[in-house]
Every structure is written in structure tokens, then in C-alpha cells.
Write a structure and sequence with these properties.
Strand content: 15-25%
Oligomer: single chain
Strand order of the largest sheet: 5-6-17-16-15-14-13
Distance between the termini: 22 Å
Low-confidence stretches: none
Helix content: 25-40%
Radius of gyration: 27 Å
Structural class: alpha+beta
Length: 456
């Protein structure tokens, strides 16, 4: 038997959960949920409080560490990366442990430790992650781009650096599948930025960063910052939209085969040379890919030469894509009606808490680009109106609305992913069963659940 389904694996964790929630677990039907991965965990037990004036010590958390490590060891033995679980009190007063295997067709939940997005089509990604750059005829390098000047400047700043050979540059181009711009070649001819060249001398790395204006990747670490390099759960990615204004310097993409990432700004944001600029940009401009956003990039400098020599401060982005008409939120803080959101360009519609009666979807039926609909429980007057939204690829509804669609055989077959929106306290097992109903419609792997009776 798999170690993850062995009660002995879970006994230390069960003791913690029982000890922290004894009063609640005394009532039949009570339950607590959590999730354990190889690098993190959620545990329904309070964090120990140290004595006043003393910081929390590792020893204070040792019981939790021990309990979690036993489960993590079982995950490693099974070749798994995560497991969800539920501890509940059965009607006869005994404690049951449910070990939940989400399987390959379910993303991990963000709020719930169980169900995130249901992946109905294997390998499918949201529309923005499929979007390729638009061709911008006549895009040229900025007047400031000067590979010779760039190389001379860097050699003056880094006289002892070890540069890449032409063979090494050619190998990098072959690996990436793209010819490196002349400015980038000039940079790496001065320094290939390999750690082994510095021999553990951190000051050398700092000198390179100071000379270039960023934490420079080695020539071997250059990568194409395409959409696949910027993954995002469906639950969030489905709400994004690609927007590129007519005068935008940078196309509002998730990623591009023409974005060559070459450095980091020290805060987790990537710097890249942009070979697919927007209508108002320059080929080879330096862009910043913000690690706190899932789409778009900002302009740092018109050229690599400009960045290295003139040291522009900061960077700026074009207008946000999270706004009408492509993305619309109907709730008490934004738009007050679905009618106000209806627009031929509408791609994403979110319906949240608002004053008034539940809304009709009639104003958006037939819109050609509407692909995402999210509606929290109780906000739709008639869930069956969703049948008129024939282009949906992502749908997030409350359990009751999904039940209406399932019973009517009206779940849109155009969907690539779906989500069950859970508000407030709800028992997880009906949600898991509902998720499996949806997965079964697409013949996808179901969520597995093993029930272990503790006998107590």
C-alpha cells in the first residue's frame, strides 16, 4: 500500500489537529482541511506563541515539522508533490481522515485546499497565453543603439572580464533558436558573466552588475521569455486580456518569442531585449517583465546602449489591460449592470457582490469575443442563459448554478477549464463530487479520495 494512504503516516498530524480542535471535532459533521506539498503546508492548528519577549524558535514548531515531514517523506516515496486532506467527525463520533488526490486534471485551490480550476482539455491554456505578437512593419532599432560604443564602454568599466567567444555566442543562438541582436553580442563579448569565471568573488559579480545596470545572466542562462515561461493558474489567467494601444512601445503580451531575457533588476523582475516591439517602440528596446503581474511588460530603455550609458531610472508601463471594454467587473465597486459591460470587444465578464436583484446575461448573449465568465453564488437570475454564451472557454460558478447546468445537460461544451466558486463554510465532499461530475463530462481523470478510519 502507498505510504500516503497508510494511517501511520498521518498519526502525528492527526494528534495535532485533534488537540487544537477538540471542542469543534466533538460535534459530528465537523471537519478541517489542509494541504501538504514538498515545500509548504497548511495545517488547521494554531501557531505556537513564544514567551513574551522571545522570538519564535524552531523548537516551538517541532511538533508541526515532525508531523508534516512524515507526510512529505511519504510523498517523495510515492513520487508525488502534494496531497490534500480532510479530518472530520463521523456520525458515530469517530474521526475519519480523507486523503485527497487531485490528479492531473485539477489545479490546486487558492482559497480552498482542494479544488482550483478543473482542466477539461489537456494542455489547454487561456487565450492570452496563446496570443503571439503582432507584426509591426518598419520597426527598427532606436537611434541610440550603438553596439561599438556599448562594447567600448563596457571594456572600460570591466577591463579584466572574460568575454564569450564567437563559438559560444553561436552555441547560445542555436540553443535559443534566434539570432542575438548586435548589442547583446557586444555585451557578452566583454563578459560572459559565468560564476566560475569569478571564482567565488562576489565583488566581481557586483562590478558586472554596476557596469551593465542589472544582475546579468550568464550567456548560458539567456532564455526566451515566451508565454510558457510565465505560467499562471487558470483561475487568474482567464481574467487577463491582451491590450496593445496604437502608440504602445511594448505589446501587452504574456510573453513573446522575441523577448530575450538577459538579466534581473534585483527585485525579481526580468529584463529582456524586445525584438517584437509595439507600434511606438524600437526593435531591441529593453523591457521589464514585472514578476508581480501575469501579463504585459514595461519599457526600461530604448536600447541596451541607452540603458548602459545613460542609466535611465525606473521604467513605465502602458495602460492596464484589466479595464473595460475588454475586461468588465459588475459589482458594487465598478459597473452597476451587465448592460453597462456589454461591448463587442468584451472578453472577460466578472459578476460579484452588488445591490439589487440577480442579473440577466441577456445583454451579453451573442458577443463574439466573450470567453470568460465568473459569477459568485446568487448573482445570476437564470444560469441557463449561459447556453447563449457560445464562445466560453472558462466558467466559474457557485455549486448551485453548476447543479442547474448539470441537471439540464447545459454545461457549455466549449469550455477548456472550469471552477467551482465556494463562498463561506461548505463541506468539501459535495464540492469534490460536483467537480468529478464536471470532469467526467470530458472523460478527464477524476479526483481520488481514500477514507481512513482512525477508530477513535
Amino acid at each position: 500500500m502507498s505510504q500516503i494512504h497508510d494511517l501511520a503516516t498521518w498519526e502525528p498530524l492527526l494528534r495535532l489537529v485533534r488537540g487544537a480542535n477538540a471542542e469543534q471535532l466533538a460535534a459530528p459533521g465537523s471537519c478541517f482541511t489542509g494541504q501538504i506539498t514538498l515545500g509548504s503546508w497548511t495545517l488547521p492548528a494554531p501557531q505556537p506563541r513564544p514567551e513574551p519577549g522571545r522570538a519564535l524558535q524552531v523548537a516551538d514548531m517541532q511538533d508541526q515539522f515532525t508531523a508534516v515531514e512524515r507526510v512529505q517523506d511519504a510523498l517523495r516515496a510515492d513520487g508525488a508533490s502534494s496531497v490534500s486532506y480532510m479530518v472530520e467527525t463521523a456520525p458515530d463520533g469517530t474521526t475519519r481522515l480523507h486523503v485527497v488526490d487531485l490528479g492531473p486534471a485539477v489545479e490546486h485551490g487558492v482559497v480552498s485546499p482542494f479544488v482550483g480550476a478543473l482542466l477539461l482539455i489537456e494542455g489547454a491554456v487561456p487565450e492570452p497565453w496563446r496570443r503571439l505578437p503582432e507584426d509591426v512593419p518598419g520597426a527598427t532599432p532606436a537611434p541610440s543603439a550603438d553596439p561599438a560604443l556599448l562594447e567600448r564602454t563596457l571594456r572600460e568599466r570591466l577591463p579584466d572580464a572574460i568575454g564569450a567567444t564567437e563559438e559560444e555566442i553561436a552555441e547560445a543562438e542555436a540553443r535559443l533558436g534566434v539570432a542575438l541582436p548586435d548589442e547583446l553580442k557586444a555585451l557578452y563579448r566583454v563578459t560572459r558573466a559565468r560564476r566560475q569565471d569569478w571564482g567565488g568573488d562576489y565583488a566581481a559579480a557586483e562590478r558586472v552588475a554596476d557596469a551593465v545596470g542589472c544582475e546579468l545572466f550568464s550567456l548560458d542562462s539567456l532564455y526566451i521569455a515566451d508565454a510558457a515561461s510565465r505560467p499562471c493558474p487558470w483561475q487568474f489567467a482567464a481574467g487577463d486580456a491582451v491590450v496593445t494601444a496604437p502608440d504602445a512601445a511594448v505589446q501587452g503580451l504574456v510573453g513573446s518569442p522575441g523577448w530575450i531575457a538577459f538579466g534581473d533588476n534585483g527585485g525579481g523582475d526580468r529584463l529582456a531585449l524586445d525584438l517584437t516591439p509595439g507600434p511606438g517602440g524600437h526593435k531591441g528596446q529593453v523591457i521589464v517583465i514585472d514578476h508581480e503581474r501575469t501579463i504585459g511588460a514595461g519599457l526600461r530603455a530604448n536600447s541596451l546602449t541607452d540603458m548602459v550609458i545613460n542609466r535611465p531610472s525606473g521604467w513605465h508601463r502602458d495602460r492596464d489591460a484589466d479595464s473595460p471594454p475588454l475586461v468588465a467587473r459588475v459589482n458594487s465597486h465598478y459597473l452597476d449592470s451587465v448592460q453597462a459591460a456589454a461591448h463587442p470587444e468584451l472578453e472577460v465578464l466578472g459578476i460579484g457582490w452588488r445591490n439589487g436583484e440577480p442579473v440577466s446575461l441577456a445583454p451579453v448573449v451573442g458577443l463574439p469575443r466573450l470567453r470568460t465568465l465568473t459569477a459568485i453564488p446568487g448573482t445570476l437570475a437564470d444560469p441557463l442563459e449561459i447556453a447563449g454564451l457560445t464562445g466560453l472557454e472558462y466558467l466559474s460558478l457557485g455549486p448551485e448554478d453548476w447543479r442547474v447546468l448539470l441537471d439540464a445537460g447545459a454545461v457549455p461544451r466549449s469550455l477548456s477549464a472550469a471552477h467551482i466558486e465556494v463562498q463561506g463554510e461548505q463541506h468539501p465532499l459535495p464540492i469534490l463530487d460536483l467537480a468529478n461530475e464536471l470532469l467526467a463530462l470530458w472523460d478527464r481523470p477524476l479526483i481520488g479520495r481514500t477514507v481512513l478510519d482512525t477508530g477513535r
